[in-house]
Amino acid sequence: MRLFLLLVAVLVSPIIQAEHLALDQLLEDVKNNQGIEGKRNHARESAFIADQLKQQQRLKAAKIERKKQERISKKLKKHLEDNEKVLTVLESELRKKGGVLGELLGVARQAAGDLRVDFERSLVSSQFTGRGQQLSLIADNKALPTIAQLEQLWFLLQQEMTESGKVVHFNAEVLSAAGEAHQGKVIRIGAFNALSDGHYLRYLPESEQLAVLVRQPESQFTDLAEEFASATTGNADLGIDPTRGVILSMLIQTPNAFERISQGGIIGYIILTLGAMGFIFALYRLYELLQTGKKMAAQLLSDTAAIDNPLGRVIKDAESHHSPDVETLELVLDEAITREVPVLEKGLGMIKLLAAVAPLLGLLGTVTGMIETFQSISLFGTGDPKLMANGISQALVTTMLGLCIAIPLLFLHSLLASRSKALVQILDEQTAGIISRRAEK
């Protein structure tokens, strides 16, 4: 046991000694570091104290500057209050003195705005360009207009009134219907119409140019325009638009005869085709009846029977019958007249049929057009009348075409029927005379 304890003591002794030496070294290091750290803290404290003194000096200077600015602010505030009082007095005086000028500004703005709108649609602006920009300086400016601007407003207003009563010739750039620009001689009739080479022009506000109407009014107006352009002295007639383009636009939008017919659709073309066939045939039959009537009139004056007319052929048949029996002769003549009557009345039934069918086809077109109209109403409602215009146009145009065909055909049928009846009556009278003379013999 003693030996064991001695062995343990020998082994532990170096370890304890080593630990004792390490702790001494650590204590010595802490002591040295404590001195160094103290010096650093002392230096930091000195720097902090020095900076604190500087901050105090800056704070003191800032307080002095604040007091100085407060004194300046009080002076400026007092000066501002004094200026506000003076400004209130001046504004009151300005309102009193500028009351009339304010009304003048409102009137000038309103007059300039209204006149600018008129200039945008006036033909006079095609000759005197840039007038709208001059009026914009008055209408869009919030400041009072100058004397020069008021004089310019008066001048432009007087210019528009004066030019509205003149017929002026001038050269300007005119756009053709295809959009090509060329220099042309323009005749401006006040602010109502403008002409160039016998064509009516329209004014383009966006470019301040004149353009030829794509579609000109009726020939009676264009003929007057050509005569007016070629006139050098005296008075000349001319159709003008006092509404400054409204009536002219309505005239050029009015469809012509071919466009009216096309609105009738396929039924309208069928009516016209049947009507043309009926007219041609009726005129042809009228010509034949007139020629036949002339030949029969010549036959009445001739002693020789000719076979180129119904009366001559009837007389020829009577002459070829030598029997003294009057009843037999009467039968022969009745047979001859029966052969000639269908030739004289040929085509009357067909003409009458066409005259009756034409209004029925017009009624068919009316029904078809109304069906189309009601379909448009059911799909799009009644908000836009243009959507219903095609159906209504077809309904009305076909009815018009049917009546326009039926009425003349009825007159032609009546004329042909009366003419053929007159020729048949001549045949009856002559055959009666032939029978009576044979009976006397």
Brief digest:
This protein is of the alpha+beta class and 441 residues long.
Detailed description of the structure:
This protein has 441 residues and is of the alpha+beta class. Among the domains are: 165-254, no CATH class; 265-440, no CATH class. Helices cover 74% and strands 7% of the residues. A 5-stranded mixed barrel has the order 1-2-3-4-5. The mean pLDDT is 81.
Largest sheet: 5 strands, mixed, barrel
**Terminal CA distance:** 207 Å
What's the SSE pattern?
HHHHEEEEEHHHHHHHH
Q: Assign the structural class, choosing from mainly alpha, mainly beta, alpha/beta, alpha+beta, or little secondary structure.
A: alpha+beta
Order of strands, main sheet, comes to: 1-2-3-4-5
Beta strand count? 5
Any idea what the radius of gyration is?
58 Å
Share of residues in strands: 5-15%
What percent of residues adopt helix (DSSP H or I)?
A: over 70%
The unreliable regions are none
Give the mean pLDDT.
Answer: 81
